[in-house]
Amino acid sequence: MGSTAPPLAADPALEARVLVIAEELRCLVCQNETIAASQADLAKDLRQQIREQLTQGRTQSEILDFMAQRYGDFVLYRPPLKFSTVLLWVGPFVLLLVAAGVLLMNIRRRDPLTENAPLTPAELQRAQRLLDDAGGAP
Questions:
Q1: Comparing C-alpha atoms, which of 86, 31, 18, 27 is closest to residue 58?
Q2: What are phi and psi for residue 34, nearest 5 degrees?
Q3: φ and ψ at residue 25, rounded to 5 degrees
Q4: Sign of torsion, CA 124 125 130 132?
Q5: Regions of the chain with pLDDT less than 50
Q6: Cβ count within 10 A of residue 18
Q7: From the centroid of its chain, how far is CA 90?
Q8: Angle, nearest 10°, between helix axes 60-71 and 12-22?
Q9: Could you give the CA distance from residue 44 to residue 36 in angstroms, rounded to a whole number?
Q10: In terms of C-beta density within 10 A (0-12 exposed, 13-18 middle, 19 or more buried), how is residue 21 classed?
Q11: pTM above threshold 0.70
Q12: Integer Cα distance of 74 and 36 in angstroms
């Protein structure tokens, strides 16, 4: 989608702060966009919760910590590097290395297969008969 959700706060400065924080949070319904861009009901509720917390005087880091405690580190677009999130950070690179390894193994396996093995005497005789029948051999 990529666009930003329409503002709901009467105060443009407050709404700007809401959107800055909402850009840091992943929509748990859509998973591929921020809650700032999502029109899912949960994203709307989370944006409203951010507004309420900002009016209560909470800082951006306090709100992000609250969301991570409530929904897990997956809600953060940039989760912290710790034991429970190592897979989020390292997983794509591990998958890339595994795919490269599988590709290399397949390429190496093909090399012996590309060499033409000599025909057995029975195969040579059959080929000669086929050529004789087709009239292609002297």
A1: 18
A2: -80, 165
A3: -115, 140
A4: positive
A5: 1-2, 137
A6: 27
A7: 12
A8: 50
A9: 8
A10: buried
A11: no
A12: 16
